[in-house]
Design a protein that fits this description.
about 55% helix, five-stranded antiparallel beta sheet, 5 helices, alpha+beta
């Protein structure tokens, strides 16, 4: 049951898992990485264009201190979104180009981390490795149970996982 929950939440098939166990991405996972690249590129590109329009709009107004501050803020945001988009796309591109999948085995330690500005994100620790995971994945990894997770080396994105034992049944 837990295996099907893992495969449903992490969106992998038996064929994906078999390819991952051989240290490779499956064709379906390659397709998913490509679509993530397109999504990140489209979203980041759209934000970059919107901020570029705002920057140009600020150039057309009479220059005063407030408009200069606005231009500086928009310019910094353009750099941040541009760099963030490039970083996300390049990680997936390297993983896609290599086609390699690594694995880690250990007890699951799912946790929620809060960033400085208050946003929370879900993470999973297996041994010394930490992975960002989705909210549904946070609830499917049982703390203390041993798992083998398969992940891309650059983005450290979990592409499949198997539960090796159930610590709660040993009690």
């Amino acid at each position: 049951m837990k295996k099907s929950a893992l495969s449903r939440i992490l969106n992998f098939t038996e064929d994906d898992l078999m390819a991952n166990q051989r240290g490779q991405l499956s064709e379906g996972q390659r397709s998913h990485l490509r679509s993530q690249m397109v999504l990140w590129g489209s979203g980041g590109g759209l934000m970059f264009v919107i901020m570029g329009i705002a920057f140009i709009g600020l150039l057309t107004v009479q220059l005063d201190l407030l408009s200069l501050i606005g231009m500086a803020v928009v310019f910094v945001l353009m750099l941040v979104f541009g760099a963030g988009t490039w970083f996300e796309i390049s990680e997936r591109w390297f993983d896609l180009r290599k086609g390699v999948v690594l694995s880690a085995t250990g007890a699951a330690e799912p946790y929620i981390r809060t960033r400085i500005h208050g946003n929370e994100y879900y993470a999973l620790k297996i041994g010394v490795l930490e992975f960002k995971i989705s909210s549904p994945a946070y609830y499917v990894f049982d703390p203390g149970n041993r798992y083998q997770v398969f992940y891309t080396p650059t983005a450290k994105a979990i592409v499949s996982a198997i539960q090796l034992d159930d610590a709660s049944s040993e009690e």
